[in-house]
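Practice problem 4.
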């Protein structure tokens, strides 16, 4: 039986596993990357953020990845890799809807919230058509010398002294290696939960407060929201950016919808239901989608002529989206963040969280694989990843609790924007390695603020009182003027400064 010796075997060749493989190869480690699927394949989870782009940029600088570096900004992406479909994301836009009612807006923007993330199209964030980006990064990893397998399943792991044997099942390709001998295993399988199943790792999803599910697809012929607003005489002149060039959120009691528009004029869209406020409907995905559109007529208008273009099987609906495991690393293994835990698409934290995990884990493996401090470094990695999952859960579940009361919701989002902008600015100002956890998850003072304000959110305090307390609570971390009543929900100074 043929066997292959590597330093690190990565199970799961999504963008996370592929980018980690590429980075480790650049540092000279022998890497195998195994995916049970085949690229290109449909994946959901597409909206990147300034933090994601800062980390991607730093990874590309640290490990000399000139082909990947252009993906960190919309302008360089278009100039260098126009064949990889992307979308422009200038920020986050939110619009409040009441069931059965048309969308209404007022001069105070009391049903709208726009928070800028970048100040020009050239420097803006992006939506990633994941099937293109993931396939590209998988190819880059292979080109850098990672041994890559697709349509390959890994069997039971057998430890032999300091080495771990991974049997491979390749389907029809008989001449490929049938076993990997590796010193370390990384689980980047996401919901595939490769290691959790093999190591019997305890599921702690019940500890999470967020409880949501979704129905989604990619569509053509979705009318731009700006056009819908203008056709109803709603003025968009005060919007700091085009609300469609954004992670566009329609928000209502019991859930929300995402819309991410790509350059090919297709749109990733999904309704997310808060299961803390209602049962999953006993409907097919198509019937459920139609029922959401009927409930929110302004969104129905946007989708009147829409056609599903991806995935091949049409609309997908899910059960509960969240997962959290008790462990994220051990003596000879580690999980990427999206494998150890996932919360919700709200706040677009997934890509950035994965990139932060890659940055941290790559340094550990490059410096400590085979050394005595590996285990202690991995314990720290685990602590950090699980703290980040908890922080995301707090930030997201707080917003879910406020949906339906838009001013309370808008105020609740300020916790996320404070954490994100504070992290971004600190990272930009740092010299040398930046160590703080994603969204300041390891900052005790910040964690206490978030916990307290999430509790206050659920208590019956008036919105005026809640806003007042929020202004005070975030003050030490508020570096971009958030929670400013004079801004009337239109934040342009939150954009990342251009370099
Ligand atoms: C509905 C939804 C919306 C989201 N929206 C956003 C968003 O807007 N912005 C954002 O930043 N994040 C978003 N996310 C999160 C984002 O999708 C993830 O953070 C991201 O996919 C992580 O990438 P990854 O490569 O680590 O994992 P994945 O994309 O999950 O890739 C896992 C890979 O592992 C492979 N695999 C699985 N099991 C096995 C196995 N046993 N053996 C071999 N291979 C295996 C799979 O085929 C796949 O290729 C969203 C997630 C969901 C569910």
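Answer key:
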């Amino acid at each position: 039986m043929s066997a292959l010796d590597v330093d690190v075997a990565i199970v799961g060749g999504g963008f996370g596993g592929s980018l980690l493989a590429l980075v480790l190869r650049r540092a000279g480690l022998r890497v195998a990357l195994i995916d049970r699927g085949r690229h290109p394949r449909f994946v959901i989870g597409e909206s990147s953020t300034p933090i994601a782009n800062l980390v991607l940029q730093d990874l590309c600088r640290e490990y000399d990845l000139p082909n990947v570096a252009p993906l960190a900004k919309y302008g360089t992406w278009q100039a260098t890799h126009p064949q990889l479909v992307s979308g422009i994301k200038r920020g986050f836009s939110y619009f409040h809807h009441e069931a059965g009612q048309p969308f209404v807006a007022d001069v105070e923007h009391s049903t709208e919230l726009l928070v800028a993330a970048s100040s020009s199209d050239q420097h803006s964030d992006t939506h990633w058509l994941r099937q293109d980006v993931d396939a590209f990064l998988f190819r880059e990893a292979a080109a850098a010398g990672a041994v890559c397998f697709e349509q390959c399943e890994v069997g039971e792991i057998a430890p032999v002294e300091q080495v771990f044997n991974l049997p491979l099942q390749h389907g029809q390709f008989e001449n490929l290696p049938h076993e990997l001998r590796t010193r370390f295993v990384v689980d980047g399988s996401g919901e595939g939960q490769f290691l959790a199943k093999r190591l019997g790792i305890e599921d702690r999803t019940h500890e999470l407060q967020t409880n949501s599910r979704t129905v989604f697809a990619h569509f053509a012929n979705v009318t731009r929201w700006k056009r819908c607003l203008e056709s109803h005489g709603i003025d968009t002149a005060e919007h700091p950016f085009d609300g469609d060039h954004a992670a566009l959120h329609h928000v209502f009691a019991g859930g929300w919808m995402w819309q991410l528009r790509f350059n090919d004029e297709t749109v990733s869209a999904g309704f997310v239901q808060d299961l803390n406020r209602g049962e999953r409907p006993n409907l097919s995905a198509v019937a459920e989608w139609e029922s959401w559109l009927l409930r929110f007529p302004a969104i129905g208008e946007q989708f009147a002529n829409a056609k599903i273009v991806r995935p091949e099987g049409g609309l997908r609906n899910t059960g509960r989206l969240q997962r959290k495991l008790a462990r994220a690393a051990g003596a000879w293994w580690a999980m990427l963040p999206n494998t150890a835990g996932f919360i919700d698409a709200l706040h677009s934290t997934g890509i950035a969280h994965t990139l932060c995990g890659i940055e941290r884990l790559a340094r550990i493996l490059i410096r400590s694989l085979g050394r005595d401090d590996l285990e202690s470094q991995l314990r720290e990695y685990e602590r950090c990843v699980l703290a980040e999952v908890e922080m995301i859960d707090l930030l997201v579940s707080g917003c879910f609790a406020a949906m339906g009361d838009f001013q309370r919701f808008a105020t609740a989002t300020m916790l996320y924007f404070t954490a994100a902008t504070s992290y971004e600015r600190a990272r930009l100002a740092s010299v040398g390695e930046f160590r703080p956890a994603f969204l300041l998850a390891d900052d005790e003072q910040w964690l206490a603020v978030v916990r307290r304000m999430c509790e206050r959110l659920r208590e019956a305090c008036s919105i005026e009182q809640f806003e007042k307390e929020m202004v005070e609570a975030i003050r030490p971390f508020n570096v971009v003027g958030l929670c400013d009543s004079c801004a009337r929900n239109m934040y342009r100074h939150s954009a990342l400064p251009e370099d």
